[in-house]
Design a protein that fits this description.
This protein is an all-alpha fold. It is 74% helix and 0% strand. It is globular.
């Protein structure tokens, strides 16, 4: 009997490279944050030049990549869903139920990562927000874009801001996020493995989800998923003259928006005199400027990848992106061993500059391992496991 043929959506190399950039940014920012363990050397015991250098490293790195690695990761999560959805639809299969099962599996990986990461895991946020893709995948481009735009507007923060302007006694809900993180930090400081892991996967995950809701990340993640889905549906990551014009236009517009939004964010978020202003419109401005700069990074990356001689160097990130889940989880395990009392406990001795070096070192070690792995295997270990379990029971 002749087998049915179907059209498969081809893999786009630049997406793997861009995903590699995102995970690299995450490991660097996490290293500077000591993987959410804010213990640093006493500045009074350091030479002045090192303190000054630490200040520069902190300002530059956090301004350039804080919140952007996750955003790119989320954007590409939506991109990948479209590829999987269309490949199965071309076979006459509805992928949506299988994707829900895939999200359930992702919650397991999120728990594994959270066990070593006190800040809670963004993958668990992806589990909940990923359901939005199931709901909109058959909608028109215009409808999906409108929903994404509403998410990007940060409606919850705008609601709180308007409420505070109309009523002087208006208060925002108290979620006790700080108190939850204190409990988690006590577990980290204890140096006890059982306490460390149990608090991370329970209290830490709860704190992380509440922080995402309170800080605008929950709705922004949905918007990024939908935007990535549209980018994939429109084949915008494929090299073509029309796509090049799109990315250049996006680079110009997002750069202009960032230039306007960043000083407003500094005034209304960084230097806000009122807590409710900072936590409402200030938070919205912070998320808007991060979104605009994320689009600056993505559009610049695509333009440089296809239109410059740097492509051969950037392509080295492809292998890192193909093992993004493995690298994401393993960086937390490595970071826990380096920075926390359960391991080497180097946090009190590593300032921002030294931590940046550690982050780069972790990235290079992972990249070296990735290249060795792909000489013998087609998928990373975590990626292979996720793929196998996703299609378990399929004939």
């Amino acid at each position: 009997m002749k087998e049915a043929t179907f059209t498969k959506v081809p893999r786009v190399d630049i997406v793997d490279a861009l995903r590699g950039l995102a995970v690299m940014a995450i490991v660097i920012i996490h290293s500077l944050e000591h993987f959410i363990y804010p213990v640093y050397p006493d500045k009074m015991l350091q030479p002045e030049w090192l303190t000054a250098l630490d200040s520069v490293v902190f300002s530059v790195v956090f301004s350039l990549i804080a919140g952007k690695g996750y955003s790119i990761f989320a954007l590409l999560f939506g991109f990948t869903f479209y590829v999987q959805f269309m490949n199965q639809q071309n076979k006459g299969v509805d992928f949506r139920w299988r994707f829900i099962w895939r999200l359930m599996l992702l919650s397991v990986f999120a728990t594994i990562n959270a066990a070593f990461f006190p800040g809670g895991d963004v993958l668990l946020l992806f589990v909940f927000t990923g359901l939005s893709l199931v709901l909109v995948c058959k909608m028109s481009n215009k409808t999906i874009l409108i929903i994404a735009a509403i998410c990007f507007l940060q409606p919850i923060e705008l609601f709180h801001f308007i409420g505070s302007r109309l009523n002087d006694s208006y208060t925002m809900p108290e979620l006790n996020i700080g108190g939850l993180y204190e409990i988690v930090q006590e577990g980290v400081k204890s140096g006890d493995w059982k306490t460390f892991i149990s608090r991370n996967i329970t209290t830490g995950q709860k704190a992380s989800l509440l922080w995402a809701v309170n800080g605008g990340r929950f709705v922004q993640t949905i918007g990024l998923f939908l935007l990535g889905y549209l980018f994939s549906r429109k084949n915008l990551f494929v090299d073509s003259p029309d796509n090049s014009r799109f990315w250049i236009k996006l680079l110009i517009v997002s750069s202009l928006l960032f230039g306007v939004l960043y000083p407003l964010k500094v005034e209304w978020y960084d230097n806000a005199a009122s807590a409710i202003v900072k936590n409402s419109i200030g938070t919205a401005l912070d998320m808007w400027q991060k979104l605009s700069f994320t689009l600056v990074i993505v559009s610049s990356f695509v333009t440089v990848y296809y239109r410059s001689s740097l492509k051969t160097r950037i392509e080295k990130l492809k292998v890192y992106g193909k093992m993004s889940l493995t690298n994401y989880i393993s960086q937390s395990i490595i970071g826990a061993f380096i920075f926390f009392p359960i391991g080497l406990n180097l946090s009190p001795y590593l300032g921002y500059t030294a931590s940046l070096v550690v982050g780069i070192f972790i990235f290079l070690i992972q990249l070296y391992f990735n290249n060795l792995w792909f000489k013998h295997y087609g998928k990373g270990p975590m990626e292979k496991l996720w793929h196998t379990l996703t299609w378990i029971g399929k004939r």
